[in-house]
Amino acid sequence: MLTLPFFDDTHRRLAAELAGFRRTAIDPLAAEVERGDPVSGARDVVRRAAAAGLLPLFVGRDGARPELRSLCLAREAVAAGSAFADSVLAVSGLGCFPIAFAGGASLADRYVRAAAAGDAVGAFALTEAGAGSDPSGIETAARRDGDSYVLSGRKLYISNAGVATFYVVFARTGAGSRGLSAFVVDAGAPGFRVERQIETSAPHPLGALAFDDCRVPVAQRVGEEGSGLKIALATLDFFRASVGAAACGLAARALDEARRYAAGRRQFGSAVADFQATKIALADMATELDAAWVKDAGAERVTTEASMAKLFATEAAQRIVDRAVQIHGARGVTRGETVERLYREVRALRIYEGTSEIQRLAIAGRLMEPGAPA
Fold first, then answer.
1. For 59, which DSSP code?
2. Domains of the chain
């Protein structure tokens, strides 16, 4: 990681602590996750992070939202050991952020503090079959009935499905962009169930959720009725830059693996690292990684900068990991090799929390606004 003014001495000490946590707790877990059940593996990740006292970096401390620079450091470190572990912890943060942002003290005390202690796990239930990058297509409905809302509908591709103890669910309470509202739904709520788990190329607790007349108390609405879209976008804006940090973690691990392999592997009487083509590939990987970190460094983000950070860092990470696989040759596509796992894990970063194409559209839209900088 570059030494940047974005980080102060406190953050640098935290980075060292996180590196130790990754080596002792996350690296050994990566191989186990590949062989085991994603749901039980995710619970193990939460237990390990709770034991190390690191969950507040992802979900926030004292019921408040997390600090962005610390979140970026945490995701960079954990993702270098396991993108699976990073995703589980970050998605719990995605579930906590709306509550800390708009849920009020009572909900924050009940859910965010519990998640920070490891006693709860969050999830963020926005996506549906017809509503991915465009939340206006959400069809899950929430009907007011006395002191409750009754939720009906389906959610798809929800991370931490089957792991989360609570889900922040976005449902339609009216028409148009102001017709979405957010609710905290407990995993044991009557009428709610994880309909099925979805298998992915890299292990991940992903699933489909069903709401069949699921009754949720009014007190578990997050913010005002109709503020759901604002809450969802604020959450994604905050976490989007941290996806770039996770991508940097995967890319840095790929570069390290490629460098060590090239130095130790001999072909035609010489180390692979001595070949000109390998030197050029390693130089390009290092250059792109440094550029990705520069793009990801900054203060509190707004939409355009967060989109730029995610777009550049995730696309660069894909290229870096691909080159690492190439340097490894046949070993690079052999199941069980670190770079083979990284190759499968890095792909999802260009999709979740807004695809690369959606980020480009957001950036272009900002550039075309009146008064945009030339």
1. H
2. 9-117 (1.10.540.10), 122-230 (2.40.110.10), 233-367 (1.20.140.10)
Q: Can you give 315-351 as a three-state secondary structure string?
A: HHHHHHHHHHHHHHHHHHHCCCCHHHHHHHHHHHHHC
Query: What is the pairing mode between strands 206-217 and 148-159?
Result: antiparallel
Both tokens of 15, joined, read 């980075």
Answer yes or no: are the C-beta atoms of 71 and 78 closer than 8 Å: no
Look at residue 292 in the predicted model and tell me its pLDDT. 59
Q: Is 288 noted as a catalytic residue in this protein?
A: no
Amino acid occupying residue 221: R
Query: Which member of 67, 353, 357, 369 is catalytic?
Result: 353
pLDDT at 320: 80
- Which amino acid is residue 102, in one-letter code? A
What CA–CA distance (Å, rounded) separates 169 from 123? 9
Alpha carbon distance 125, 14 (integer Å): 31
Nearest to 253 by CA among 202, 196, 320: 320
Burial 187-207 (b: 16+ CB within 10 A, else e): bebeebbbbebbeeebbbbbb
R_g (Cα) of the chain, nearest Å: 21
Q: Residue 302 — pLDDT band, cuts 50, 70, 90?
A: low
Instruction: Using DSSP bridges, classify how beta strands 122-125 and 166-172 pair: parallel, antiparallel or unpaired.
Output: parallel
Q: Quick: pLDDT tens for 229-277.
A: 999 999 988 888 788 888 888 888 887 778 887 887 767 776 766 777 7
Q: In angstroms, rounded to a whole number, what is the distance separating the alpha carbons of residues 300 and 3? A: 18
Contact assessment for residue 99 and residue 222, using Cβ atoms and an 8 Å cutoff:
yes
